[in-house]
Amino acid sequence: MSKKVTQLVFSISVALGLSSTSAFAATDAFPSLSSLGKSLFSDTNLSLSRTQSCSSCHNAEQGFIDNRDNGVESAVSLGHDGISLGNRNAPTLSYAAFSPNFTGTNANNASGGQFWDGRAASLSNQAEGPPLNAIEMGMLNKADVISRLQENTDYVAAFESYFGNTVFDDVETAYTAMADSIAAFEESDEVSPFDSKFDQALTGDYSLSNSEARGMNLFFSPASGCVRCHSTVMGQGRNQNRGNLQARGGRGAGGRGNPPFGAGRGTGLGGAGAANPSRLDNIMPRLAAAGNEVFSNFRYFNNGTPSNTSLNSFLQSVGQQSEFLATGDQGLLNNPLINRNANSRGRFKVPTLRNIAVTAPYMHNGVFKNLNTVIKFYDHQGGNQQRINNPETGTAWQAAEVPETVSRRRLGIRNAMSDTDINNLECFLRTLTDQKFEQHLPTLREGLSCS
Fold first, then answer.
1. Consecutive sets of 10 residues in the chain, 451 residues long: mean pLDDT of each?
2. Are the beta carbons of 33 and 9 closer than 8 angstroms?
3. What domain range includes position 42?
4. Known catalytic membership, residue 136
5. How many domains does the chain have?
6. In the listed set 159, 186, 213, which residue is the last one of a domain according to the structure?
7. Could you give the CA distance from residue 385 to residue 391 in angstroms, rounded to a whole number?
8. CA-based Rg of the chain, rounded to a whole angstrom?
9. Residue 103 sits in a domain of what CATH number?
10. 127 and 231 in one domain?
11. pTM score, whole prediction
């Protein structure tokens, strides 16, 4: 059980006048709170139609994403009724536990939270949402959800064991207990194992190939600008998640760490293509010492992602998501904790890059199908005039869905990237795949060699 959830359960037990022993007593069916949460996560009976669960849109065998086609090439998810579609791509739940609780009041200081817009302040808050979402699982109210739980005698025994004999006396208490149980599963090593080739390289159990090593050097070099957003503990400037990560099995407590290039200014690696595998002798020990790298600073930016026109056309043809189609995706502006300022429009939380190679399609609307396309898109956004066309369409990149708030200064990079640079970055990003999901890595595309 995670420290955070353990403290919460202890607080509940004290409030109910229970001993800590009775509050933490395991049951035969569910020997840990995490195992209870795992079962709830996959339980289709918690949806109105009894056909959909959390795992339907966050498949634990496929990188915790929705890998169903859904008639829209997996861009968005299908609801419990088998007809209704959402308007955002289901983000991976891998490593979601490492996002700090949401803080901030505006676009410039917003950080953390769950969902693309951070509207759920914590992992437990996020788990409360899907059962009551009209499209996702469709339950009418919390009382109906709790009634479904009570149909399962093993659930009843486990809830009373972990949260006290009176847990079902109050619907709000029982519903919170359900969400906390799911959060406990999402905080487990099963969801965030830190066992990728990247992690093994940090411990000396895997040797990066030349391409992977060059890609890693480039990723952490100021030449690429990647760590401006995609670093948890080793980013530049104020984007570190200071001390919010949990210690996990001796692998480090997270926190600020030391930038791999001194005070975040670089060490003269030269141009984007000049990274040398020997530089890993400097980078890797500092990465290992810094703690768990989740490859996000958990902040909110508009990276200039274009609308997913094919998705929007389909939604229009079936008469769904009319309000969304009329206004476009408002992003962070949808977060009720944010001041309703136009500067928040079109901003989304920086996602983790863990398992990025197996969690296509990409961006909040699933507009890009291939990882290679995403890297080239950022190269284009950074100012490389040679990246004229989207390789998936063969036509010019479309304009940003919300052009007014594009974070152009942050997107700027020092050097345009060559095709070799992009190949090396792709090879490195493939090393961020958990062992469990390596079997789902796409076959190396033509022209890509990661040796």
1. 47 41 68 97 98 98 97 97 97 97 96 97 97 97 98 98 97 98 98 97 95 95 90 55 35 30 29 49 79 93 97 97 93 92 95 98 98 97 94 97 94 86 98 98 95 95
2. yes
3. 3-186
4. yes
5. 2
6. 186
7. 15
8. 22
9. 1.10.760.10
10. no
11. 0.87
